[in-house]
Amino acid sequence: MSTPANLHITCEHCKQKATLACAGCIAVPDTAAGIVQTTWYCGASCQRAGWNNHKEACKAIQARKSLFRAGEVVQHAFYMYREKVFDKYVLSVERDGEHLKTNIQYVLNEDTFFVPFPDKVCVDHADKQALLASWACADAVAYMHGLVKSLLQGLYKEISDVLVSTKNHRRRFINAGITAPNNNDNTKYGHEVIQVTLKNGEKYVLDIAGAQYGQFTTVIPWDVYVQSHVKDVIHCHDFGSTRERITSPIYCNGSTHIQLKKYFNKLLSASMDAKIKEWQDSNITLPAMLKLSEQKLFEKQSEFFSFLDGELDKAKLSIQGTLSGRARVPATEALLEQWLRKGTFRRES
């Protein structure tokens, strides 16, 4: 419970002067999608007496709080993951109004799948987030699927992968180094997001890669998001369908090197999911973590991100060594061959 700043707030149960707030209602994100008013009491006895009248609203508020906190965790994890698998040589970034003109080349070296993120070309942290998210919305929805599923367990009534076309872009990437149709402008693509409906019917978007358009808020009420950022809702699919699609071999047309990079992400995201489960088994479940007090949540999040960062580094080194031929593992090589054979393409000779 917390002491109110407004000394005229009254107890929800006895209507006397209130001094303490319901712990479940405090620090809830302000949103027009549902109840936003914190419930106050004069003390613990009135809180217990008034619980039957308050519990449904309180549970809805706590679910919203968990969703917003989950969005922060997923967003941080995505930027962490994306920075480790960044695959573009960014030669320059030039700002022109709402546009970020980038001169890039994709990494095609046979022994190098990814390159260090070019921090020095970014003017500020927002530019870095936008560049990390650029052309990566499907990756965000696919490779963060396991983390989203773990965080939101028991929280939602419905959840879907959704493809939208966007509008009102506050940022736009124009690639001077790519000449293929549409590849030089990220706003010409559809944008992948996740739609979450809580058990009380409140509906939200989880937009993990929105920074590329200047949208830096991860969780937004769905109606507000559609009105402000969506031109058309193109289609809705089952939660996880994006992951299945982009980790399938048919999705990965192109050179063997491009195929291997896709396979690398398939293995790395699977490793991340396994490590997330390992952390929960030995520590605290992610849904339980989201319900902690602000200070304890911060501490546990720090532990979680530190663990995940280290495990991703180890998995990245292991997988890249395997796929580049420096440390061939027969079982993994067999999986790769099987994966390649399932598609419409073949390994280059």
UniProtKB/TrEMBL annotation:
<keyword id="KW-0479">Metal-binding</keyword>
<dbReference type="InterPro" id="IPR002893">
    <property type="entry name" value="Znf_MYND"/>
</dbReference>
<dbReference type="Pfam" id="PF01753">
    <property type="entry name" value="zf-MYND"/>
</dbReference>
<protein>
    <recommendedName>
        <fullName>MYND-type domain-containing protein</fullName>
    </recommendedName>
</protein>
<feature type="domain" description="MYND-type">
    <location>
        <begin position="11"/>
        <end position="58"/>
    </location>
</feature>
<dbReference type="GO" id="GO:0008270">
    <property type="term" value="F:zinc ion binding"/>
</dbReference>
<keyword id="KW-0863">Zinc-finger</keyword>
<keyword id="KW-0862">Zinc</keyword>
